[in-house]
Amino acid sequence: MKKVDFFVGLALILLSAATWVTAGQFPTVGDTDVGAGFFPKLIAVVLILLSVVMMALSFRRQTQDGAEEVSTSWSKIILGFVLTFAFLALIFFTGFYISAPIFLFVFMWLFGYRKPISVVVVAVIVTLFIYLVFEMVLRVPLPAGIFFE
User: Is 0.85 surpassed by the pTM of this model?
Assistant: First the structure.
């Protein structure tokens, strides 16, 4: 049994339940069930299902050929959280479109993906995809940052 997977799954289920409750308080549009809370509720349900699968797999996870599983050090995990909060702070100042590729590049580099061209391409493509989905399709502006307002 891999205890970390079990407890992370449990934490994600609790987070999803809180998201479901919070999204239930969002306003609806007319007589339909589709409103501001529909998409967060959908994501919460998917996350609960995936968390249950992760928790179930934590009981029977074994490596092939008896090889040891590679584990990530706690220092990298803590640094990952610190980087995420730094990313949120950086969004406030520089906006999403500058901070997202920087964050993605540093995060991928931290966790061992060391091909610079690939990392830059992935960071730019992910940022471009988020731009297309939010700005063009959903018409939801992403933060511009105080330097660019």
Answer: no
